[in-house]
Amino acid sequence: QVQLVESGGGLVQAGGSLRLSCAASGIRFSIAFMRWYRQAPGKQRELVATITAGGSTNYVDSVRGRFTISRDNDKKTVYLQMNSLKVEDTAVYYCNAKPWELGYRDKFGQGTQVTVSS
Questions:
Q1: Residue 66: phi, psi to the nearest 5?
Q2: Of 59, 61, 86, 100, whose CB has the highest number of CB atoms within 10 Å?
Q3: How many CB atoms are closer than 10 A to CB 76?
Q4: CA distance 1 to 71
Q5: Percent over 70 (pLDDT), the chain
Q6: Measured between alpha carbons, how far is residue 18 from residues 2, 4, 11, 66, 100 in Å?
Q7: Tens of pLDDT, residues 21-74
Q8: How far apart are CA 20 and CA 28, in angstroms?
Q9: C-alpha–C-alpha distance, residues 71 and 35, integer Å
Q10: pLDDT value, residue 25
Q11: pLDDT band at 3 (very low <50, low <70, confident <90, very high)
Q12: Contact 67/83 with Cβ under 8 angstroms?
């Protein structure tokens, strides 16, 4: 069974930091592209960051230079280090993969809430 389980969300003041984690199971993690999405109230889900199997990364412009995506293949975990957080980063953050085990269909975790206060 393919599972993605996020953790690490919470309440933080603007300018602060959080690190999100996503533990994967049931997939060949080392070959999977992993992504972080977020969805703010009343807005569409937005792709925030991607990391390839080889470790290349890409970010949406609004977080580039503040967020860092990384992966630990031994632990089958992907991380999102979020620094210099802004109120507008408030959202539910979702881990995502499109594993061949699911025919490359989208798989999301349950999400973790990040709330940034002013």
A1: -115, -35
A2: 59
A3: 19
A4: 21
A5: 100
A6: 26, 19, 9, 11, 30
A7: 999 999 999 999 999 999 999 999 999 999 999 999 999 999 999 999 999 999
A8: 21
A9: 10
A10: 96
A11: very high
A12: yes
Sheet holding 77-82, edge to edge: 3-7, 18-25, 77-82, 67-72
Q: What pLDDT does 43 receive?
A: 96
Element (H, E) at 98: none
What would the two tokens of residue 21 be? Answer: 């984690």
For 50, the token pair is 């991607």
Predicted local distance difference test score (pLDDT) of residue 114 = 98
Contact status, residue 29 vs residue 73, Cβ threshold 8 Å:
yes
DSSP reduced 3-state for 40: coil
* Residue 93 near residue 9 (C-beta atoms within 8 A): yes
